[in-house]
Amino acid sequence: MIRKFALIFGVIYVLVGILGFIPGANDQMHTDMPAMAVDSFYGRLMGLFPVNLMHNIVHIAVGAWGIFSSGSVAASRLFGKGLALLYGLLTILGLIPATQTLFGLAPIFGHDVWLHALSALVAGYFGFIARDDSGEPRTA
After folding, report:
1. Predicted pLDDT of residue 133
2. pTM of the predicted model, to two decimals?
3. Residues 80, 2 contacting (CB under 8 angstroms)
4. What is the model's pLDDT at position 28?
5. 20 Cβ contact list (under 8 Å, min separation 6)
6. How far apart are CA 115 and CA 121, in angstroms?
7. Which residues of the chain have pLDDT under 70?
8. What pLDDT is recorded for position 113?
9. What phi and psi values does residue 83 have, to the nearest 5 degrees?
10. Which of these, 22, 47, 21, 19, lies nearest to 33 by C-alpha position?
11. What pLDDT digit, counting tens, does each position of 95-119 carry?
């Protein structure tokens, strides 16, 4: 299951990153959104999730990491741990008004906050708690 988690999350993140570059899927910037230093592709993905060029690139990179790590249980577990820590940090930063744009580089406010929290929780389960693919308890 750990390898499937890494592969599924990887594919989802790559697809979401690509979707952020498709004009119809990414609404134009709304007036209620804060100004960004990187405003290319800045808008709301599916009308809900704030994204921009940097955000989309990070999604593709995280997705590629997941896909490549799905080759082994150890790499998939490391992906889960890393994703849990990264998205846990992004969740916290998204709750602090001064850091909700990562200093103008990527928007992490609004619906992104709960989605990052959910991603961190799922990744944390597979990174730190889940049994390996053989059904044996975690050994490390």
Report:
1. 62
2. 0.90
3. yes
4. 75
5. 26, 41, 45, 51, 55, 56, 59
6. 10
7. 29, 133-140
8. 97
9. -65, -40
10. 47
11. 999 999 998 999 999 999 999 999 9
As a whole number of angstroms, the distance between CA 133 and CA 3 comes to 7
Residue 82 identity (one-letter amino acid): G
What pLDDT was estimated at residue 94?
95
Residue spans per domain, the chain: 2-129
* pLDDT value, residue 138: 54
User: Per this entry, what is the length of the chain?
Assistant: 140
Render the burial of 66-100: b for 16+ CB within 10 Å, e for the rest: bbebbeebebbbebbebbbebbbebbebbeeeeeb
What tokens does 48 get?
């809900």
- Cα separation, 35 vs 57, in Å, equals 19
